[in-house]
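Build the 3D complex.
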Amino acid sequence: MGGPCEVLTEIVDEAAARKVVDVVAACAWRIEGKFSRYRTDNIVARINASAGAPVEVDEETANLFDFAALMHRLSDGLFDISSGVLRRAWTFDGGDRTPAPAEIDALLPLVGWSKVRWERPVITLCPGMQIDFGGIGKEYAVDQATQLAAQVSGAAVLVNFGGDLAVTCARDGGQPWRVGIESIDAGPRRPARLVDLAAGALATSGDTYRFVKVGGERMPHILDPRDGRPIRGAPRSVTVAASTCTHAGMLATLAMLRGEHAEEFLANEDVRHWVQRA
Amino acid sequence: MRKLFLLATACGALQGCANLGVQPWEREVLARDDMQLDVNALDTAFDDHIYFSKEGTSGGRGFGGGGCGCN
Amino acid sequence: MANKDPGIGAAVAAATCSLLGTATPGVSVAADAEPKWDIESAFLYYGESDGRVKDLSLSALATRDFGDERKLGLDLSVDSLTGASPSGAIANSSAQTFTSPSGRDTYSTPAGEIPLDNTFLDTRFALNGSWSQPFARLYTVNAGLGFSSEYDYQHIGANFGLTRDFNQRNTTLSAALAYAQDTIKPVGGLPLPLAQMTDAVDDEQSPGNRGDNSDSKNVLDVLLGVTQVIGRHTLLRVNLSYSDSSGYLTDPYKILSVVDPVTGDLIGRTPAPGASGPTGVYRFESRPDSRRKEALYAELRHDFSGKVLQLGYRYSTDDWDVDSHTLESRLRLPIGGSSYFEPHVRYYQQTAASFYRYSLANGALPEFASADARLSEMSAVTMGLKYGHVNAGGNEWNTRLEFYRQTAKAPNEVLIGNQPGNTQMPDFDAVILQFGYHFKL
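Done.
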């Protein structure tokens, strides 16, 4: 999941608590195993190795493709799960290397959901194209895990996968969960922003862990799939509160993609949000 | 007094430069605690009180605090 | 708004429901949980050299944020003052005796020393409250009330201000007004202007050189300010202020030595038989009953790679002819992620008030005169260092140590007889030590 995962619960009985943790962990590993782009034996690997041949997918994967397709349309092409190949030109590891425009242009023909033939349950990519669920997989996993936790226990549970989190319900006595949004500035001089979460989820999109420096400016790893360049004027971090982690994560990502209009976009969406800028 | 007025007008003219300033997303440094004008509020209040009672001039920075029988 | 974009939130919510297989979108209940109270507290010690004034002070400044930019500020402080202060009389080649401010006791000063009045022992309480809130889109309004009390002095004041933002909040104009009424009720009653210090009397009698028991002073302050963002790393603040004080502005405890107009030596005096009292001719000071001041203040804050330079300058001029320049600078140097050092320097200089006298020539009296060194030609330097550390909970401990040196000079025009070259001004050094804790609740 790209970060530490934890389960917080108010269950006092150790056995019951362990049951919740096991169910959440199993869910996390299952989804990671199934949709991680780093594996060579899962459905994603098979699709990415298909070299233009059609691949039939199961129901869960089909649901994710439907969702991604709709998000592509709603964001006017900014959200695109086929933009992963651009990674080859950019190495998002904190370094300073920026690729030449020619390198990026060479990859652009391999990017674009509109080039993908998706007719449920069959997906056909153009040769050389790659898809990855990095933009929705973690939030989807949080929601699935939270649903399972709620089925297994009536107690208050908070599922947190690397900063994207959701709760089954409020804590004892209706008390909210106290969550901190990590500050973009290092060190305790800017402590985390505190949020009281009583229901729903929080998701954060940002550059705290992955960025590249272009001309002294930190650029988050959100790329514009239409031209391959990082979105300019993008905030350093966007956190959104919504009823599900997938919903929150999508709005956070879409806000980042809107660059300097992030706050406008979120204000219009009428959700609680926190934008940090550099 | 005229010297003061000229100085103030000069400062006022400076403020007229509307191309000074930053975009809302460029305020990260300005938002830091140590860049706020009132960052050492208590120190400033103590100092103002000491200098008010030991020197012939006081104030200029702002209001708050109060009089005392020491000057 | 008829043409408000409906947004994609509903579509995303619906899509998420299908993805997760839930019937309804569920709810989101999230709210800011920022700490409500921000409290700065500090303990300060101020100590002058040579047995002079010492002050112990305890202060707390609490700010409560109600969200939406509405803020309440509360400021409480307690001060305990002890020690001796120069009375304004000059040193003499033989010992001197003075009547104390109450008019009922005497005190003495050894030969060759500047007379200090050590009858001060005072505790002062001060309380200030302020409120600020937005008022229409780019406007903020603020108001405050202040009160302070010590055994011979009371202060009550109110202030009101307005700010307005321009240029995407890069420029802020502010205007503020403050009015204060102070009451002074000195020990022994108010001395008559330039009255001569008399022998000590016992409790039933009146010293004979006193007027009313108390009097008052009103102060009106007007402030106009501009705050301007100069760039991502720089902020400038410029204030223009005007202050009008009227009423009793004299210091009832300060005196002047009366000297021979030719030699400049103290005029000797013998107390009445059986009484104790002054061994010289001394007169209480008298200041005008009005003072108008104008000041220009500018402050620059500049960040360069996490270090912050603060530079401030103030020029002040008034109708007592006290003109002053103040130049001050602080440099905040972060150490690691949670500590800092902050060196501080300040330079101050002022010209003497038009009625400042080193001593009074025996004979015709001027309308106003004061030998208070605070109204003489004077300069002062402060140098200090502050250290702060933020702990894991985000709260800060800090401490600062400062050294202050004040040097005064009597302008030649006010010197009499053989005084030039022989003046002794009550210069002093002081130490400031402060411990503070800044925390949030």
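The mean pLDDT of chain C is 91.
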